[in-house]
Amino acid sequence: MIEHRLGRAALGALGIAAFIALAELAGRIGLVPEVVPHMSAVLATAAELPLEAEFRADVLATLAACASGLAIAVAVAVPAGLLLGTVPFVERSVRPLVEFLRPIPSVSLIPIAMFLFTESQDAKTALVVYTCTWPVLINTLYGLTDVDPLAKETLRSFGFGPVAVALRVSLPSAAPFIATGIRIAVSVTLIVAVSVELLAPGDGGIGAFQSLAGSANRLDRMLAAPLWAGLIGLAANLLFTAAERRVFRWHRARSGAAS
Amino acid sequence: MSAGVSKGGGVSAPVAVRRSSFGRRLVWYWLLPVAVACWELATRSAQAAYFPPPSLIVGRLHELWFSGPVTRAFLTDEAVADLLPSLGRLFAGWAAACAAGVAIGVALGRSRWLSALVEPLLHFGRSVPPTTLVPVFLVLFKIGTPMQLASIVYGVVWPVLINSMDGARTVDRQYIETGAVYRLSPWQRLTRIILPGASPKIFAGLRLSVSLALIMMIISELVGSSEGIGHRMLEAHSQFDIPAMWAGIVLLGLLGILLNAAFLGFERVVLSWHRGARS
What we know:
heterodimer
C-alpha cells in the first residue's frame, strides 16, 4: 500500500518535471509567442517573489480579505441555517428567496460594491462574504435534514427545549456537512478577491500586483503571481481536507465512507 | 426532488389534484412579493443613492434591453449588441471546455499510470484562481473574444476534467469484464460502458462548471471587453447610472437561474436511467 502510494507520488513528480521541461522546450524552439517568457524565467521570478516585501504585503492583503470574509460568512450562515433548519415554516418560506439570490454571480456585484465601499479591501471582504454565505448555508440546511430523529426525541423527552436540542444534537450532527460547505467556499474566495483587485487595485492584493506588473510589461511577474496563488489555493484545500478528516473521523466511521 | 415526486404522482392522479399540489407549492413563494414590497418601501423612504427601488430597476431593465419591437421578441438594439456576444462566448467557451474536459479526462482516467502522472499537475491547475490568468490572457490576446474565450475555458475545464477522470477510473470492473466477454469493440466499450458508468461523476463536474462559466464570462467582460453585459455594467458604473448597474445584476441573476434550471432539466433527462437503477 505504502509502496503503491510512493509510486504514485514519484509518477506525479515526474509529471510535473516533464511538464516544466516541455514548457521550457516549447519556449526555446519558438512554439509559443515571443512575448511569453520562458518557463525557467517564470520559475526564477516566482522563486524571488517571496523576498519582496511588496509581494508579501499583496498576498497578505488578499488572504486577509478571504479569511475575514469567510469568517463573517460562517458566523452569519451557520446560525441562519440552524434557524431555518429547525423551524420548518421559516425554511419553506425563505427557501425560494435563497434560490433566487444564490444564482446571482458574485462578480456581477463588483461595480456596485466599488461604489458602496470606498476602501477596496472592504469591497473585497463584502463580496467574499456574499460568495461564501450560500454554500455554507445550503450545506448547513442539508446537514440538518440528516439529523437522527431518535437523538432529538430523546433529548426532548428529557425536557430539553428546542434551542438546546438544536445546539446539542442538530449542530454537531450537521457539522461535517457545514465543514464541506466551508471547503467549497474556500475554493471560490480567491477567485472573487482577485476579481475585485483587478478592477479596484487601490488596496493592494495579488490582482493589484498583476495590474502593476502588466503596466510595467513584465509578463514573467504576471505569470509568477498565479503560480503562487495556485500553491496557496492548493495548500488551503489540503489543509481544510486534512482538518475535516481529523475532526470528523467519527462521522466517517458512522457513515461508513471509505475515503 | 419534490418536482420529481409530484411529476410521478401526476401521471395517474386527476388534474385537479395536480393543480392543487402546484398551488400548495406556490403558496410557499409568499415571501418573495413581500420582500420585494419591503425593498420598494424601504428604498423609497430612505432615498439611498446606491439602492434604487426595484420598480426603477425593472423599469431600467425593460428600457435598456426589452422595449424593442415585437418582431424581434421585444429585444432592443442594445440587447442584441450586449446579450448575443456575451451568451455566444458563454456557450462556446463552456461547450469547448466541457468537450475537451470530458475527452481528456476519460482518456486519462482509463490509464492508471497516466492519471498518476498528471494528477498533481491537474490539482495545481485547478487551484490557480482563473481570475489571476485574465490579465495574462489580456496581454496575450488583447481585448476581445479570444481573450474571453480563453478565460472561460480555463475556468471551466478543471472541474470537468478531474471529475471525468475520477468517473472513468472508478467504472465497475465487472462491467468492463462482461464487455470483454461479449467481445465489444473499443468504441462500443467506450460508449456503452465507460461513458455511462462515468456519467454521474461527469455531470457532477458539469454542474459546477455552469456557474463558473458565468463568473468567468462576467469578469472577463469587466476587465477586457468593448461589448457585452459586463462592459455595459462598467459603462453604467463610470456614468454613475446606478439603476442600470442594478438592472445588469438582475439580468445576470436571471441568467444564472435559467442556466441552472436548464442544466438540471438536461441532467434529469440524461441521467434518468441512473436514478431508476439505484432506487
